[in-house]
Amino acid sequence: MTDKERKQLQLTANRVREGILTGTYCAKSGHPGGSLSAAEVFTYLYFREMRVRPEEPRWPDRDRMVLSKGHTAPGLYSALALRGFFPFEDMRTLRHIDSYLQGHPNMETVPGVDMSTGSLGQGVSAAAGMAKGAKYLQKDINVYAVLGDGELDEGQVWEAAMFASHYGLDNLCVIVDLNGLQIDGRTQDVMNTAPVDEKFAAFGFDTVWVNGHDFDELEAAFGRFHANKGTGKPTAILMRTVKGKGVSFMEDQADWHGKGPNAEEYERAMGEIMAARAALEG
Ligand SMILES: Cc1ncc(C[n+]2csc(CCOP(=O)(O)OP(=O)(O)O)c2C)c(N)n1
Ligand SMILES: [Mg+2]
After folding, report:
1. Going by fewer Cβ within 10 Å, which terminus of the chain is more open, N or C?
2. What is the position in ligand 1's atom list of the atom closest to the CA of 149?
3. β-bridge pairing 235-240 and 206-211
4. To test ligand 1's pocket by mutation, which of 116, 146, 182 has the most ligand atoms within 8 angstroms of CB?
5. pLDDT single digits (tens) 170-182
6. Which among 71, 175, 251, 252 is the best mutation to test ligand 1's pocket, defined by most ligand atoms within 8 Å of the CB?
7. Which residue range is the domain that position 123 belongs to?
């Protein structure tokens, strides 16, 4: 990608972070940590990778994205809003009574959401079913699923993985956000899932490690997914990330898994986001 394209993506990820912070601040709740760690991949998916039509959200031939770690909806919503699926201003209604932007994604009410999720482990299974359906219909549709590293504790993830390789779902791209933290501690202490690469490989996946905050590495990893077409192998992109990325006092803190910032914290966080934006705009 060109320097200009990279900078544009970085600016968009910065705006995704603004939406996450504003939404969880206005809601006084929600999940900023795992939303911030996936800000770059949400940006990359919707601004560079996926074939979608914001003006026609249910276009039948669109690529699908399943947010298997559904609690990080603020990150997904921000990216969808910036891509034009709905007004960015609506992030302020996150989790409010009667808002369509609830704490977990609802495919019935949110334009651009392809699967209702929130119960960890289920989303990736739905994604595998979608990928199988696309093959059955002989459609060129890619299916992406974003998972958390804590989510890998769910046995259902591995049933989906087994299904994906059994049916040769090379149109399925599983993306794991390895931020090292889950709801109440370090993934390695709560339930050590390492070696994640060897596990996915044993289940028949091609695996690729990336720095999940680096757009060039993401581009290379998605390029590998495309190169795997025709091999019958599903792809697992394993992203090393920092939970809470972009807000100094939220970074790598389990405490910021599931709570909104108060007014003072929001102001501090937005100060950092705006400083990063100014630096990018140079
Ligand atoms: C089946 C199920 N069990 C428990 C929960 C409650 N829960 C919500 S988020 C979370 C931790 C997830 O950690 P991880 O997958 O690492 O997400 P991230 O760090 O990206 O936020 C848990 C246990 C849930 N949503 N679904
Ligand atoms: Mg995690």
Report:
1. C
2. 16
3. parallel
4. 182
5. 999 999 999 999 9
6. 71
7. 3-281
**Cα 8 to ligand 2 centre (Å):** 27
Please give the model's pTM, rounded to 2 decimal places.
Answer: 0.98
| Digit-coded pLDDT (tens) for 252-268 | 999 999 999 999 999 99
> How many structural domains is the chain composed of?
1
Give the strand order in the sheet containing 172-178: 64-67, 143-148, 172-178, 235-240, 206-211
pLDDT tens string 93-102: 999 999 999 9
- Burial class, 201, CB count within 10 angstroms (exposed 0-12 / middle 13-18 / buried 19+): middle
User: What pLDDT sits at residue 20?
Assistant: 99
- Alpha carbon of 183 to ligand 2 centroid (Å): 8
Q: Return the HEC string of 98-130.
A: CCCCCCCCCCCCCCCCCCCCCCCCHHHHHHHHH
